[in-house]
Each structure stands twice: as C-alpha cells, then as structure tokens.
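Worked Example 4.2. Consider the chain below.
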Amino acid sequence: MKDEPRANLLIVDDNRGHRQALAKLFSKEGYKVALATNGEEALEILSKDSFELIITDLRMPRKGGLQLLKEIKALNPQTMVIIVTAYGDYISYHEAMRGGVFEYLNKPIKRNEILAVAEKALIWRKAIGNNLD
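Applying the procedure from the previous section yields the following structure tokens:
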C-alpha cells in the first residue's frame, strides 16, 4: 500500500529549470507535485484539483505571482502560498503580505530553507483548519 502524499503542491514558475528542481526536491520529500508555467495555467489546474500549498514565482508572463495570490485566496483562503523571486522589493513584499502570502523568499533559495518554510506553512494551515472546526 502506497503512503499518502505529505500534501498536494503546485509549483508555478516560468523558468523550467527552477520548476523541475523544486519538483524533484519536493517529490523526494513525499509531496504530490503539479507544475504550471504561469498564473493562468495555474488557475486552470486549480479549477480541476485542490492544493494545500502553492509555491509561485513573482514575475511571470501572462499572470504574475501577486495576481495569482489574490485569485488563489479568493478561491480558497486556507491555501498556503509561498512567493519566491529574484526581483524582491519592498513594494511587492508589502503587497504580498497584505494579500495573505505565507512567506516571501528571495532567490537563490537553499534546499533546507524552502523545505522548512513549506513544512511550517502546512502546520499553520492545519492549525487554522482545526480552529475553524
């Protein structure tokens, strides 16, 4: 009997290398991983499946991470979102925090850092869910 995945994770990044590296890392850690190349594709995937955690790049063509964050939170406020970016600035950080992002990380991201943040996000999500019951 196969173990249940740790969580359903959607990785959204227009850079194929970043997407694949994160997918490999999280798959090895027991996550069920889906991939999207931009916010529009992510929303198509979200219309068919649910995810406990979404890791998204900030800057992407067709729909960036901040707009995606707003739409994710409108669909399901309990979904945890982590934004990663190579172009972090105070304005986008502040907007992400106001929008309900769990964490805003600057690239390059260390393996242990992203795994720890993801785990904290899932613990937080579970705690929120228990308080709503």
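The domain at 8-132 is CATH 3.40.50.2300 (Rossmann fold). The chain has one domain: 8-132. Compare this with Example 4.1 before moving on.
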